[in-house]
Design goal:
The protein is built from 18 helices and 14 strands. The protein has helices at about 10-35, 65-85, 95-105, 120-130, 145-150, 165-175, 175-185, 195-200, 225-235, 255-270, 285-290, 300-305, 325-330, 350-355, 370-375, 385-395, 400-415, 420-430; strands at about 60-65, 90-95, 110-115, 135-140, 155-160, 190, 210, 245-250, 275-280, 300, 315, 335, 360, 380. The strands form 2 sheets. It has a 7-stranded parallel beta sheet with strand order 3-2-1-4-5-6-7, sandwiched between helices. A 7-stranded parallel beta sheet has the order 10-11-9-8-12-13-14, sandwiched between helices. Helix 10 (about 255-270) links the parallel strand 8 (about 245-250) and strand 9.
Amino acid sequence: MARQSTKPSMALALYRMLLWLATPFIFARLWWRGRREPGYRQRMAERFGAIDATGLDGVIWFHAVSAGEVIAAAPLVRRLAAHYPERVLLLTTMTPTGAEQAAALLGDVVTHRYAPYDMTFAVQRFLQRLRPSVLILLETELWPNLIHLTAARSIPIYLLNARLSARSAKGYGRIAALSKPMLAKLTHISCQYPDHAQRFRALGVAAPRISVAGNLKFDRSVPADLTQRCDELAHACLIENQLIWLAASTHDGEESLLLDSFQRLREQQPSLQLILAPRHPHRVADVEALLKPLEYRSARLSEILKAPLQDSVDVILVDQMGMLLPLYDLADVAFVGGSLIEFGGQNPIEPALVGTPVISGPHCFNFTEVVEKLVAVGAMYQVSTVQELVSTLLELLNDPQLRARSGGAGRAETEANRGASEKVAQQLIQLIGDTAH
């Protein structure tokens, strides 16, 4: 196949110029972020395309931005590794938490590198060293330079588990001069739901290059040692036989509202235990500052795991990754964050998977279809105010049978929606064919 034209459009040329001008600020932000998250200062050269590609010939390249996408892609990646045993599978991420999940879930079948920032020189250097046979993007990882320069080398590009909210579609529509040529270079787009496929078509993607396969996130399996991990956590945190409210994946602007809710709940449930897990663990210090004037006793989970509590605390703060699934299983009710503010919500499938009732705020546009499914079966509740949150929590906390029905409905719904990983794997193998050999 002949290489596609590398001549950039005016919009792409402007995009590249702006990124070039921003390069010093991008480097400074990376270094600054590394103050609180040291992982960002490790292997920094990889982010500018300087990777060690020794032994990485003709690789199948998967790119997932962070931990959630890596977790969702894990069954699919293992299926591809089994089908192409002679090939090297490379998994790139943008975040250290993604790198941690890659090592934990897929360390035996993939090689990990950090993906290059979308600057022309970084992407070119990365591609020159790696020379992949195929690029597989997860969910919304659409970067103009990455896609343009990869396609220019006649490398097939597949976008899997693709989601495109109405808000994002409007945004792409406003920059059609940049987004339409970029989308045209994708070999195939496998969407989560029909509405997403329709939005891609409305942006100019030809219908034959789009399919719908379901959501990979429903295919996450429950670890065999989950019950043991839950028992160990409950014992270390002194929360055995206690009502537990887990507020997970929370964002700046939400924790103050959640702590207000906790104060009101404690008036009727004096022994209620709050476990609060910020989306970004380094923000635990910010939450501790909010707790100070409230005079609640708190402890960080990392410290508890080193030395189990001798006296109970009011609030347990989760300051490390990889803990949410057992904590969801421990909780009687879970709140999923990013939803009381206009962020778009976080993944509500995990608590449903382990049979825990789910509550969220009104802003869940990143997971519209999933939320609609879980709300429809009574597994999830959406609230708009602190008062509604408190009322819904009290209703669930005071009614074990309601919790059991809600949790059971969530578990059944996740089971009913499984199968996307195998469907996507079969489709991808057919599309790739012998390209990866």
